Amino acid sequence: MASLLSFKKVDEFFGDLATKHVDIEDYCSTSAQELADRISSTEGVQSPILVFYDYFSKLSGNEQRTFNNRSLGFSILFTGIKADDFPGQRDAKEKAEKIGLEVLSRINVWSKMPESGWLYKNFDKETVTYDEVDAEGSDGYYGMDFHFELKTLEPLVVDPAKWTDGNIFCT
């Protein structure tokens, strides 16, 4: 049985959000090496960038139902701000907070729409936290980190075809 939600689906979701938001110029997934490579490339990173950087899961529930609670993290970052440009740092944080809250607003509203698939009724706005980012990396990234949780069903069912002794399991 296929999982309702996966890392790849979340990655594609954040990439899609970054593409659709008029102020977000770039997107990078959870690979620190990918981000480093893009920073050092001739194209560099477009600012602001949405960086999906945290994907953590925890199973919970009872004998009848299992949930796969996922904690997700993303940042909105502005590049090229000098260490002594304090007004620029504050401005970047202000803009990043606004954009991040717009992203969370879209997630919140979309989670109430049945056509949202795996997101439907799974976003828990009470779990949202965010904090400022100061001088990440050598290129002076400033902005905000955002975290939130999703609570999705995760049936723990054995697929007999995936086990050499699968015949011992009922389907």
What's the short version?
The protein has 171 residues and is an alpha+beta fold. Helix content is 28%, strand content 33%. It has one domain (7-168): 2-Layer Sandwich (Alpha-Beta Plaits).
First and last CA, distance: 10 Å
> What gross morphology would you assign?
elongated
**Uncertain spans, ≥5 residues at pLDDT below 50?**
none
- Physical arrangement of strands within the biggest beta sheet: 1-2-3-5-4
Largest sheet data:
5 strands, mixed
Which percent range fits the helix content? Answer: 25-40%
Described by its quaternary structure, the protein is single chain
CATH topology-level name: Alpha-Beta Plaits
What is the number of helical segments per DSSP (H or I, 4+ residues)?
Answer: 3
Rg, rounded, reads 19 Å
Q: Total strand count, please?
A: 5
CATH superfamily: Phage minor tail protein U
Mean pLDDT: 88
CATH hierarchy, class: Alpha Beta
Order of helices and strands: HEHEEHEE
